[in-house]
Amino acid sequence: GIIDRTNELKPDVIALAGDIIDDTPETISDLTPLLSGFKAKYGVFAVDGNHEVYLGTKQAQDIFQKNNIDYLKQNLL
């Protein structure tokens, strides 16, 4: 319901501010169809939080990109 309610607002931009992916690589496939449902006039963007780092930033990047979400990778020290 969150994705539908968000899209009903007709947002200009959607920002996913990290800790979106909080699961194992084996079960993350259930999440990906949901992520692709976000729609915004100028795009959907995501940055990684510590949970994406735990998953693996490359895997997180792949998941976001496959779902038309621009992944703004941080350079974590």
Could you write a compact summary of the structure shown?
This protein is of the alpha/beta class and 77 residues long.
User: What is the tally of beta strands?
Assistant: 3
Task: Calculate the terminal CA-CA distance, rounded to whole Å.
Answer: 36 Å
Largest sheet descriptor? 3 strands, parallel
Structural class: alpha/beta
Strand content: 5-15%
Main β-sheet, spatial strand arrangement: 1-2-3
Q: Supply Rg.
A: 12 Å
Form type: globular
Helix content: 25-40%
Mean pLDDT: 81
* Helical segment count: 4
Order of helices and strands: HEHEHHE
Low-confidence stretches: none
Notes on the protein architecture:
The protein contains 4 helices and 3 strands. It has helices at residues 2-8, 32-35, 50-55, 57-66, and strands at residues 14-17, 44-47, 70-71. The chain is globular and about 30 Å long. By secondary structure, it is of the alpha/beta class.
Strands, helices and their partners?
Layout: H1 2-8, E1 14-17, H2 32-35, E2 44-47, H3 50-55, H4 57-66, E3 70-71
Keywords:
77 residues, alpha/beta, three-stranded parallel sheet, 4 helices, 13% strand
